[in-house]
Amino acid sequence: MRKRSMAMLAAGATVSALAITATPAAATDFWQAWGAGSYHASSDFVPTGGSVHIGGWTCTGGAARSFYVQLVKTSSSTGVFSSYTYGADGVDHTDPRAIAVSTSTSYYLRWYGRNNSGQAASAPCSKAYATN
User: Fold this and answer.
1) 66-70 contact pairs (CB < 8 A, 24+)
2) Tens of pLDDT along 35-65?
3) Contact (Cβ atoms closer than 8 angstroms) between residue 97 and residue 55
4) With a threshold of 0.85, does the pTM exceed it?
C-alpha cells in the first residue's frame, strides 16, 4: 500500500485520496488517521455488526516504539477493550480478539504511543480502525 500511496502523492493526489488508499481491507467499519502525537481520540462511530476487531498503525521515525488502541463507549467514556501492544513498524495490526458491541451504541477509538519504557511517546503519524 505504501508504494501505491506514494505514487498517488507523486501524481498530485489530494491528502484525502492518500488517506483512503492507506486503509485496511474493505470490511473496515471505521478508521481515522492523525499526525504527530502520543495520544489521539477518534470521532464517534456506530458499528454495523454485533462484533468488531480493533487495530491500528503508526509510521516509524518517532519516539514511539509501540502502540495500542482502545475501544471506548461514548456515553460513559469508559474503555470497553484494549488491544495488544504492537510495534511501531509501519504495518497495520489488528487484534485477533472479537469484541461484542451494540449496533445502537456510539463508540470511539483511542490510540496510545509508547516508548520502550512504556511511557507516552510521540509518533509522526498514526491510525486506528474498527473492522467487522
Assistant:
1) 66/113, 66/114, 66/116, 67/111, 67/112, 67/113, 67/114, 67/123, 67/126, 68/111, 68/112, 68/114, 69/95, 69/109, 69/110, 69/111, 69/112, 69/128, 70/109, 70/110, 70/112
2) 999 999 999 999 999 999 999 999 999 999 9
3) no
4) no
CB 28 within 8 A of CB 21: no
Which sign does the torsion angle of CA 62, 70, 43, 8 carry?
A: positive
pLDDT tens string 59-115: 999 999 999 999 999 999 999 999 999 999 999 999 999 999 999 999 999 999 999
Count of beta carbons in the 10 Å neighbourhood of residue 55:
24
124: three-class secondary structure by DSSP: coil
